[in-house]
Every structure is written in structure tokens, then in C-alpha cells.
Design brief:
Helices cover 51% and strands 10% of the residues. By secondary structure, it is mostly helical.
């Protein structure tokens, strides 16, 4: 699926391929000498990545991409966006290297972090209050379904990612610290403590500097993750000493899960210990990436190739905040739109701030459907830059919905439909062989359209009466459609009559005529291709609608 695309991938202009080429350059520089890198690059550019891997042992290890997640809450839009976009880069890299080079995508959960506050809307908040400051994987599960609150949210994360079909490896911070996987790097950090402090302290305020340590010990008595100064270090023994509020002066190993790190050193330590090659992050973390990269180098590691994406804005252009609830949740998007439309939205201009609000969903659905149709006739060089190539890992579906989402929305409104069955009845003549079984996407879109219309379109409907000139044009259109056979389902034939009326009545520009149709007949400022709408709705019903609009009845 992703093989034999090397030449196209080298020339592709879309951002996942730009990132893939950056990632390739990063890995070659990180793993090879200058002369080896030149030789490997020649082989890879010639479509012989398999030979490059066979020649240079350092290239055989998988390329590691990582995404991070804080499990103090449920997965959200940002979680989806980061994993979806990273997956797009991963697939572009696979195409660039002929799919010969193994890759891994780690979904890392920082579940050893201490619970700092009780989240809103969870049951048994008093239980969480009692467990504040303990690692999330020790905090009791207020839902009563898992061993801990961290385990509960990790399960939700994995179900969330699995539901979208992502290919990833889940990694728990707690399990990884306790397993010893981080021990070597943690001891290195202990040895280079002063170098790490020299990086971190200048970034902190005066009061914070006085108590800061990269190590957060877990109290053997209270179980709390402590933010306390490190008062002593024994590099030989691999231990730190600190004042435990519950036990006084205490010494613990930095290995085996007895401590975790402050988040920026922790990020750097993960990059080093897991040999991460790529991780993207939001624009708000640019400084954090810079500081963590310095710590990574101090630990002897190489910071990963990165990519800073812009954050989403609400409908008023303000930054989305989970605490304010001014954004759009995953559940809300999936009530009104398809997962593919969300992936489409995540693909578009990731370095530009975009509104993430209900009003973007219909356009995202229709743009996605249009891209699928365009893909069918595009040449290979255009196909690989089409968003649907990245959304579907190089294998977009060959069939999509026969009608647009905007048309369905208008059909729901005009037909006053409240169920899929009513909508399917309108398609009986237009698509006589169509069923929910052989047109599953159309069936799904009907459900989304019913939800979206009821919640957003219906409350905002605003019909207007036609002008005298518009009323004459509408009656002319009704007469022309009456002259056609009543069972006409040829949308193009109907559309030609619509155009003819607009020209005959000298609408200038012609789009003013279509604007009048939408505003007078549909109560909206824009709408679907009118011929297709009439073909599905039925010619006799459309004529009745037009005549009612011409009389001004719809605006009453």
C-alpha cells in the first residue's frame, strides 16, 4: 500500500511529506557519520531504502514517533489531533522510504504525575480529595471500574484511539519508571544534576528557583509526589535525600519508580531513554520544547525532530480552554459529523489558527466528500498531496456519499423529517437501488444531518418574502418545472432550467438568483445545488415549495 511511492513522496508538497523528509534527514544525521549519511541518502533517493538499511546497521532500529497524554482527564480534541497528525507524518515517512523502515508510534501516558486538583463532573469527588498529590495510578478510581483513576483514564484513552483505528503502542509512565526502563537515564540525570539545574533555574521565578529540583520523590509514608528540594545526592549509590513532610529526612533511589521527574526534564528523559525521533506539540509549548531539548542534550541524547501546530480558536476567535468549555468536544463533533471529516479538518493548515466550532462541521464534511471524488481522477502526483491520501493511509475509499451533507440538511428542513426512514423515502425514486446496507456513509450522514439540523439550523432559520422581480422568476421556474415529467430525477436537467430562469430574468450577478432561492425557499443564506435537491425532494413537492415561496407564505 505504501510501497513504490518514493519518487512521489520526495516531490510531494503537503505538510506530512515535508515533515517526513525532515524526519528522514534528522534520523540520518543522528545515526550516521557524514560520509555514511551521503551514501545512505543516495540509496534512499534511488528508491533503495532496503539496501540502505542492509548496509548501515545503525538504520535498522525503528524510527520512533511519540505523542503525550496527561490522564488527569478524558481524551479530547487535542489528543485526537496530535495522534492523527503524527500518524499522517508516519505514513508519509513510510512512503518516502518504500515502507522498508520499521516505525513505532508511542502513545505515552504521564500517569505517574500527582493529582493536583479534583476534576469537575466526576463521581465521588471526596475520594479524590483524599487522594490528592498521589500518582494518578495510585489515586482510587471514582468510577469504580478500574484499579486507579489513572488506569480508568488510560483505558478510555486506549478505547478512544482504538475506536479511530490508530496503530500505536501504549506506554504508561508508572509502568515504565517501575520497570527500570528509565533507570540508566535517571542515573545520568543524577550525575549531571548541576548541568540540568543550570538549564532549568534561569527559566523560573525567584521563589521557585529556591526549591526547584528536577526530581519529584514519591513519599514512602504518604505516597504523595513531592515538590521538595533535593538536599543530598549520592551518584555512586544512585540516591537523593530530601525532607519529607511526613517523615523528615529521607533517602530514596532515583530508580525503580521511587521518583518521577518534573515535566520538562521528564520530557527530555523520555526522548533520551526511548530514543524518540519525532514529536509534535502545540505552539504554546515552543519554550518548553526548547528547554527540554537542552536537557536532552545534557543527558547525552538528541532531541527529536519537531513540529509546532497552531491552537484552535472558538467562534469568537478566542483561544479554546477546557476549563471555560468554549471549544468543541469529540463527542459533539461525532454527533454532527463523521470521524473522517474531523481528520480532514486536522489535516488542513496545521500552522494556522482555526475556529473549532459547530459551524465548521458541515463544510468539513462536504470538503472531505469532494476530495474523495477528486482523488478518483487525479494523477498520482496530485493524489499523494490530497488530504484523503493521508487520512486513509494511502488507500482512500472508492465510493462515498452520492449527495452532499448540505443537501441533506436542506432536505431535512424542507421535508420536516425527524427520522432516517423519512429521508430514505425521498431517495426511493432518485436512487432506487440505494439502501442503508449498500450506502452506509449516506445512512450515517442522514443521522448527522438530523442532529445538526435540529440543534443548529432549525433555530436559525429565517425566511424572507421575495421581491416583485424574484416572485416573477420563481413563478416562471415553477411553470418550467411543471412542464417536465413529474417523475424527473435528472438533477442536471432541473438545474439547467434554474440557470435559464436566472438569465431570462437578468439577475446580475447570477449568484443573486441562487441567493434568492436559498433565502426565500430554504430560509438560509446558502444551500445545495438546487437541481439535485429538487430531484431528491421530488418535482411536484418542489413546485409547491416554489409557489409558496413566491406568494411569501414561507416568510409568514
Amino acid at each position: 500500500m505504501l510501497q513504490n511511492l518514493e519518487t512521489l513522496a520526495r516531490e510531494a508538497k503537503s505538510w506530512p511529506f515535508e515533515q517526513a523528509r525532515n524526519l528522514l534527514a534528522h534520523v540520518l544525521k543522528k545515526r550516521l557519520t557524514d560520509s555514511e549519511r551521503d551514501a545512505a541518502k543516495l540509496l534512499i533517493d534511488a528508491g533503495k531504502a532496503d539496501e540502505a538499511l542492509a548496509t548501515f546497521e545503525a538504520l535498522r532500529a525503528p524510527v520512533v514517533l511519540e505523542t503525550g497524554y496527561g490522564p488527569s482527564g478524558l481524551p479530547h480534541m487535542g489528543t485526537f489531533g496530535e495522534v492523527a497528525r503524527t500518524t499522517m507524518v508516519r505514513n508519509a515517512f513510510r512512503a518516502l522510504t518504500g515502507d522498508h523502515w520499521p516505525t513505532r508510534l508511542i502513545a505515552f501516558s504521564d500517569d505517574m504525575d500527582g493529582l493536583r486538583k479534583v476534576p469537575e463532573g466526576v463521581p465521588n469527588p471526596e475520594m479524590l480529595t483524599e487522594d490528592l498529590h498521589k500518582p494518578l495510578t495510585v489515586v482510587r478510581d471514582p468510577f469504580g471500574t478500574h484499579d486507579s483513576f489513572g488506569a480508568h483514564n488510560n483505558a478510555r484513552l486506549r478505547a478512544f484511539l482504538d475506536g479511530f483505528g490508530f496503530d500505536y503502542e501504549f506506554m504508561s509512565s508508572t509502568a515504565t519508571y517501575r520497570s527500570g526502563r528509565f533507570d540508566k537515564t535517571l542515573r545520568t540525570l543524577l550525575e549531571r544534576f548541576d548541568a540540568v539545574q543550570a538549564i532549568m533555574l534561569p527559566t523560573l521565578g525567584e521563589e521557585r528557583r529556591a526549591t526547584y529540583s528536577p526530581f519529584l520523590p514519591v513519599s514512602p509514608v504518604s505516597g504523595h509526589v513531592l515538590q521538595v528540594p533535593t538536599t543530598g545526592r549520592d551518584v555512586e549509590q544512585g540516591t537523593i535525600t530530601f525532607d519529607d513532610p511526613a517523615a523528615g529526612q529521607t533517602t530514596v533511589p532515583v530508580t525503580g519508580g521511587h521518583v518521577k521527574l518534573q515535566w520538562k526534564p521528564d520530557w527530555a528523559m523520555r526522548w533520551t531513554a526511548l530514543d524518540v525521533d519525532y514529536e509534535m506539540s502545540g505552539k504554546d509549548l515552543i519554550e518548553s520544547v526548547r528547554e527540554s531539548s537542552k536537557v536532552c542534550r545534557a543527558l547525552g541524547g538528541t532531541p527529536p525532530e519537531g513540529f509546532n501546530y497552531e491552537l484552535f480558536l472558538d467562534v469568537e476567535g478566542k483561544k479554546i480552554s477546557k476549563s471555560k468549555g468554549n471549544g468543541l468536544t469529540m463527542e459533539e463533533w461525532l454527533r454532527y459529523g463523521t470521524p473522517e471529516s474531523l481528520s480532514w479538518y486536522m489535516f488542513q493548515s496545521p500552522k494556522s489558527a482555526k475556529s473549532l466550532h459547530f459551524n465548521v462541521i458541515p463544510r468539513a464534511i462536504d470538503d472531505y466528500l469532494a476530495a474523495i471524488e477528486a482523488y478518483k481522477t487525479q494523477e498520482p502526483a496530485k493524489r499523494i498531496d490530497n488530504a484523503v491520501w493521508s487520512i486513509h493511509s494511502g488507500a482512500p475509499p472508492t465510493h462515498t456519499s452520492p449527495v452532499s451533507f448540505s443537501l441533506l440538511l436542506n432536505l431535512v428542513g424542507v421535508a420536516n423529517a425527524s427520522s432516517k426512514a423519512q429521508l430514505w423515502a425521498y431517495f426511493a425514486k432518485y436512487l432506487p437501488d440505494a439502501t442503508p446496507q449498500n450506502e452506509p456513509l449516506l445512512d450515517r450522514l442522514m443521522g448527522h444531518a438530523l442532529n445538526y439540523y435540529e440543534d443548529f439550523v432549525k433555530p436559525a432559520k429565517s425566511y424572507r418574502a421575495p421581491s416583485e422581480a424574484e416572485a416573477k422568476a420563481l413563478l416562471d421556474l415553477a411553470a418550467r418545472l411543471k412542464a417536465l415529467p413529474a417523475d424527473t430525477t435528472d438533477g442536471e436537467l432541473i438545474q439547467n432550467e434554474v440557470y435559464a430562469v436566472g438569465k431570462e430574468h437578468a439577475f446580475e450577478p447570477l449568484r443573486a438568483w441562487f441567493g434568492a432561492l436559498y433565502e426565500v425557499l430554504l430560509g438560509a443564506s446558502q444551500g445545495p445545488r438546487f437541481g439535485s435537491f429538487a430531484a431528491i425532494y421530488g418535482l411536484p413537492q418542489t413546485v409547491e415549495l416554489i409557489e409558496a415561496g413566491a406568494r411569501g407564505d414561507l416568510a409568514k
